[in-house]
């Protein structure tokens, strides 16, 4: 089995290129996308259409209910499933998606984390009622680790609380004793480099298409079924649509805000991809297609 990772900002053409390459090079596809992982979130996630999903076997799509929470371990499980299926079927594997943080974590490696007991989770939940106090508590135990975590970062504070309470060990000492192990190796990384004006145009057109295809109805149904508290309901496209449903903005403003926020996300993704990966190549869709041909030869 040979594999490659295809990264790039949202609306850069990653999914279409991945599908074309998979069909050409007998490959499976692993989607690494923080929204496509959820069932029922179809339009807001801009996930591939049904016929595309069945034309090439996909992993990492429609795995969780919207009221569940995706983590890097969700994608690790999907990577293992995808790589095992590729080996069994004698196929290649293409990793593609905009949530490059998860890909980075799997390439750099993760430290072993023990199972967290219900008792520990309950204790941490009580402490998290006062987030600043929880941050101060951890800072006294491990100032090095907590100097990198802001007092309002509830997700990372919770994780550090779990680890500290479960192991009775400062996180920095735990990670030193349990160095990270890479999950993904021998995986060339290809980054789509797209001109900003073209990207803005793609984002605007995609946003208009999402609204035309029923984004508002989809979000209204998601809210009815799951409320607004799940992490999935805080994604770009969903948050703005909830504002529309609340009567705070009109449809024109809805499209403008989604486009603007998506553009801002794309800029952050481009910066992250350029700074955080050792890229095999960064170029146009055509250039990446030729690079993929060489990798899969």
Explain how this protein is built.
The structure is a single chain. With 297 residues, the protein is α/β, with parallel strands linked by helices. The protein has helices at 14-24, 50-55, 72-89, 100-108, 118-127, 131-141, 143-146, 154-167, 171-177, 196-212, 215-226, 238-245, 251-276, 285-296, and strands at 3-7, 27-31, 58-59, 92-96, 189-192, 281-283. The protein has 2 domains: 3-109 and 182-296, Rossmann fold; 118-177, Histone, subunit A, CATH 1.10.20. The chain contains 14 helices and 6 strands. It has a 6-stranded parallel beta sheet with strand order 3-2-4-1-5-6, with helices on both faces. Helix 2 (50-55) links the parallel strand 2 (27-31) and strand 3.
Can you tell me the CATH superfamily of the largest domain? P-loop containing nucleotide triphosphate hydrolases
Number of strands: 6
Rg, Cα atoms, Å: 20 Å
Give me the CATH architecture of the largest domain, please: 3-Layer(aba) Sandwich
Q: Record the strand order, biggest sheet.
A: 3-2-4-1-5-6
> At the third CATH level, what is the topology name of the largest domain?
Rossmann fold
Report low-confidence residues grouped into runs of 5 or more: none
Reported for the largest beta sheet, the result is: 6 strands, parallel
Helix residue percentage: 55-70%
């Amino acid at each position: 089995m040979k594999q490659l990772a295809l990264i790039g900002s949202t609306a850069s053409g990653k999914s279409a290129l991945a599908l074309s390459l998979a069909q050409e090079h007998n490959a499976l596809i692993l989607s690494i996308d923080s929204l496509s992982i959820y069932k029922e979130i179809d339009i807001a996630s801009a996930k591939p259409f049904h016929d595309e999903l069945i034309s090439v076997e996909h992993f990492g799509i429609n795995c969780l209910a919207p009221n569940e929470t995706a983590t890097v371990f969700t994608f690790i499980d999907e990577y293992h499933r995808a790589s095992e299926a590729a080996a069994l079927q004698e196929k290649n594997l293409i990793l593609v998606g905009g949530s490059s943080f998860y890909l980075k974590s799997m390439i750099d490696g993760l430290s072993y984390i023990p199972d967290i007991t219900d008792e520990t989770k309950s204790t941490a939940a009580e402490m998290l009622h006062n987030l600043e106090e929880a941050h101060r508590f951890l800072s006294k135990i491990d100032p090095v680790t907590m100097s990198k975590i802001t007092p309002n970062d509830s997700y990372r504070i919770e994780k550090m609380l779990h680890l500290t309470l479960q192991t009775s060990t400062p996180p920095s000492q735990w990670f030193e004793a349990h160095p990270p192990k890479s999950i993904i190796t021998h995986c060339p990384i290809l980054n789509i480099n797209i001109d900003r004006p073209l990207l803005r145009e793609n984002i605007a057109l995609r946003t208009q298409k999402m609204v035309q295809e029923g984004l508002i109805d989809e979000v209204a149904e998601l809210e009815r079924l799951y409320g607004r508290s799940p992490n999935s309901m805080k994604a770009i496209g969903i948050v703005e649509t909830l504002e529309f449903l609340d009567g705070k903005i009109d449809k024109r403003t809805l499209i403008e805000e989604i486009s603007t926020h998506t553009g801002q996300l794309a800029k952050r993704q481009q910066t992250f991809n350029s700074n955080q990966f050792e890229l095999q190549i960064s170029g146009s869709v055509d250039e990446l297609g030729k690079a993929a041909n060489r990798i899969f030869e």
